[in-house]
Amino acid sequence: MEALKQKILSEGKVLSESVLKVDSFLNHQIDPELMQEIGREFADRYADAGVTKILTLESSGIAPAVMTGLTMGVPVIFARKRKSLTLTNHLYSAEVYSFTKREANEISISQDFITSEDTVLIMDDFLANGQAVIGMINILQQADAQLAGIGIVIEKGFQEGGRKIRNQGYRVETLANIAELTDGQVTFMKEEKV
Ligand code: 5GP
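^ thats the input. predicted complex w/ guanosine-5'-monophosphate below
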């Protein structure tokens, strides 16, 4: 998606050869117009997939997921990373190792919101080694729900997550796929459609 790529090039900060900071429009301050465009793009790509719910992970997946849910007319559920006083039992949970925080978190959703009747689109802000997405797939398996596919705003194609998940036969759509982060520069994958 060209507008997203331009935003990454103009505002993204390469923190290391494996970490990109996009705090000015996605991970801290949020650009609502760009999120709306992102939502329309995912809604368009998954228009015929029979999606009934979107599942994401707090907190940075929520903005693009809500915009996609708004366009598709389906509810959005975000898995919680911390135990909450109001989310105590009747849960589906999975262990996820966090790429940015370097620690394992248990992610959970209430069993009330995803059932075997649902066809779910999984979304997240970044795809790195795939741990977050694999944790959410695990939760859908516990719920016996169908997986329509995965929608990722920024994939780091030089890390293994995308290949691992596609090799399992799942559909993965990404709006900007990064080939490398070297010398402070972002280089996108060549085959990426714009
Ligand atoms: P994975 O589980 O695929 O290894 O990593 C994806 C998760 O880690 C995402 O939910 C995202 O929040 C975070 N993440 C991974 N790589 C980056 C990165 O380069 N920049 C930022 N801001 N977050 C990242």
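Residues 32-45 form the longest helix (14 residues).
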